[in-house]
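request received
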Amino acid sequence: MKTKAYLFIFSFISLITVSCTEKIDIQLDDSYVRLVVDGSISTDTMAHAVVLTSTSSYFYNQPAPPVSGATVTISDGIQVFPLTETTPGTYTTAQEVFGIPGKVYSLNIKLANAIGGHSDYSASSTLNPVTAMDSITLQFHPEWSEDGIWEVKCYVQEPPTVDFYRFLLSKNQTMFTDTLDEWIISDDLFYNGNYTNGLPIGYLDQGSTEQGLRVGDTITAEVNSIGKEYFNFLAEAQSELFGSNPLFSGPPANIKGNISNGGIGFFTAYSAARSYAIAPEFGK
Amino acid sequence: MKLLKFILILFLIGFISQIAYSLPSGENDQGKVTLSGYVRDKSNGEMLIGVTVFCNELKVGTITNVYGFYSLSIAAGNYTIRYSYVGFEPQEKKLQLDKNLSLDINLQAVESQLGVVVITGKRTDENVRAPEMSMVKMDIKTIRKVPALLGEIDVIKVLQLLPGVQSTSEGATGFSVRGGSSDQNLIILDEATIHNASHLLGFFSVFNNDAIKDVTLYKGDIPAAYGGRLSSLLDVRMKDGNAKKFALTGSVGTVSSKLTLEGPIGSERTTFLVAGRRTYADIFLPFAKDENVRDNKLYFYDFNMKLTHVIDENNRLYLSGYAGRDTFKNQFAQMGFGNQTGSLRWNHLFSKKLFFNLSLIYSNYKYELGTPEGEASSFLWTSKMRDYSGRFDFSYYLTNNHTLRFGATTMLHQFEPGTATGLGSESAFNEFILPSQYALEHSLYVSDEFKSSSKLTLKYGLRFALFQNVGPGTYYNFDNEYNVIDSTVYSKGTVFNHYSSLEPRLAFTYLINPVSSIKGSYSHTAQFITLAQNSTAGTPLDIWFPATPNVKPQLCDQAAIGYFRNLDNNMFEVSSEIYYKNYRNVIDFCDHASLLLNPYLEGELRIGTGYAYGAETMVRKNEGKLTGWVSYTYSRSFREIPEINEGNRYNAPYDKPHSVNIVANYDISKRLSASATWVYSTGLPVTFPTGRAIVGNAILPIYSNRNAYRMPDYHRLDLSISLMGKEKPGKRWHGEWNFSLYNAYNRHNSWAINFTQDSMDPNITYAEKTYLFAIIPSLTYNFKFF
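response:
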């Protein structure tokens, strides 16, 4: 609701002014190097990955430097899953591992060489259960853009607990919401315990080759129940990536993760459920 | 209970009038007489505010108050009394004063009689002599001469050209005074608080200059009669309406048109003014190529009205009202917001020396935002902030060297921070109501202006403010980590918390010689309500919150000293001031604060200290072919809050070290005049990334210390040219064309700087600036008919 309000107000700036953007040269200082962790474990049975990299100067303009040779494990308190480095900086579990709702998962990292004065890092996350959606539907809005926009609507009885969600979309098994800023996240503050009755959980641009639909395409919506901390992490990251403006952006601030010893990033456990829809005849 | 209150109030009024009537009226004082009356503009009967009334022989004087009233008590004798006011021909009266005398004066405006001929008579030396500092008064004529964005002349935009006053963002009407934030300014229109003075996301202010008579900004040394805000008082007074004849004033411009009708009703004793203004950018939208834009709505209107009635020599009534509203609408959502204010005032002269005013005031700011019905995501969100207040003020012109002012105010604040509900049966949203909050704010004040000698004037006053939180209300308690522990619910009428503050206001003016003076001031101010806004410019989605057991009132001490000098027979006014401000309980917000629709808003506040200092200097020329001013401001403002920026001191959001303003108007001929303004300022402080981390395939920024960098410097030149229609005797229609150019050398001033990933190679990041305005020409036609 608040995001919608902001986007709406922002849309009027362009009507009132001739606002334009142009590149600008800015000299930025460097800060010290820190470990970056991007890892998760879900209820899916698969090789779960933890990616270790290090921070770089802002205009580094190359892929993040991988951190190799670390010892990485995920534990649920009883069982310990070792991770092996498959490509530089990417550590994965065995293929048959899956997470169980209600358990607390801990990540432990021991680096070969200390970064930022620390070689031991850890994080933990509780895996919350998710309610499977009854269905999803697709609604086409030809007037929302030049080629039209598909709105993905979801139908589910939202449970009375306080929940946080992430929605991911795939077309014909290929996930196109593949970066953090494309994920739709939502808390249930305004609809807790209600039947969602078609609340939008994502949008597809018919003009894009990646997202545009042809009759018979399968759209998969994945819903993840995520923890409050991870929700806040994503919300903070998304607001920083959206950019700032004098109307409603507060001062930029660092994104709070859950890695110990000053590490950047997040390790999350989440549950996943999926629902499908077949693209109807174009424009229907 | 109600009866008891009523009796109490009656008793209080009776008591006040008893005292008032028993104060010496001047009639019996030995050898002393009182000269009093009103000063008006001869052409339209408007009361003039701040006219100097000066006794040449005794070298004593006074100025007219906001209702145009003056009172001067001197020993009986023969005197020459001089009435002078900028832009008006001074008048001198030779008077034989042996008893009290009521004398109303009509001053003639310079332009209407002499055109552009330079006045050679003695000019006013108010700059040097007035016992006020850190204060600027703008008459509407000066404001009209400044080139304006889209030709829409705006009071607040002109104030932003004064030293010590900064705009909060490009083109915005929000302003920062001496490094303070914009919610620290008390903006009043005929005594009623304007909570949000902006239209169209801040590009225009709510003040229609055709309805405005006088604007005074106090940057420090705020009179004891006012309080509740830390940084400044902007006192805007509406015109009373032409008492001589009906007049129609208006303009047709690029973005808006306005019309004002004023005149006497029956006799000169009753006058009215109604003014309306509407923008019409959206009238052209139906012709837009894009079908979707055609149904968009984007406009604002305002409506001002005023009725003035002179009951008799000693009683006057004023009824003022303002209503404004903005509407935005597109296919996805619609939004509306606006202020409504009303004030009813009664002036009463208990005697020639004792002026009394009683005001009843209402003010409301509300907004709503919603999406069309029929969707699961349909909602409507509304919010309101209302004030009901009453005040009385006495001015007691005791002797020629003592003027006492005292009075009391009381105000009920009613906060409705937000109600969001699902709209229609399809909506999946619950009703979400943030509980309303209520608070009372009372004050008592007394001040004395004491002319201790012909050289030294002292002003000293004391204001006592009492703030009370009243039920019904729900208040939360927080632990050290700002998590909610529990809540307390208070029933209706319970006063469950209070704060009080004793606020001294001290000032002196020392006249070194007739053309130069030194002035100094100290003031203590307290602010009990704060705006939840952590962006620089802000949106219409304002949420005000009161001081509570969790949130202490913000406090400020300000000291300033200045040197004032007039040159070349008062042709040039030079003023220089330095100031220091110390803040306690200053409020900032935690990282990634969530301010809207948040029941636990108080958990987002972080409280600390701050200080600001600076120097301002201005050279101003008010008369002649060339008028205008040049000013330079040095201003720093810092905060130190334990939980922000790791407890280290940081630049406050409006810390702009250097700024220069040049405003010039040149009368080329009787009909043609040209104006230019040039502004320069250091960029606002910003936080930039100093590192990056890749998470979720996105480049996340790692930031520098808070506000460690700066936006690029801001500078801009605006030009305008005005051509008046030919004047002929007896002509009733007066037209004027105005052509203006905003941002004449087309500088792309940064409004925002963002860091973006390259669309081709996502590993590459670059900085990108957004600018709002290129060069903008506009044409306006102004007219007057009477």
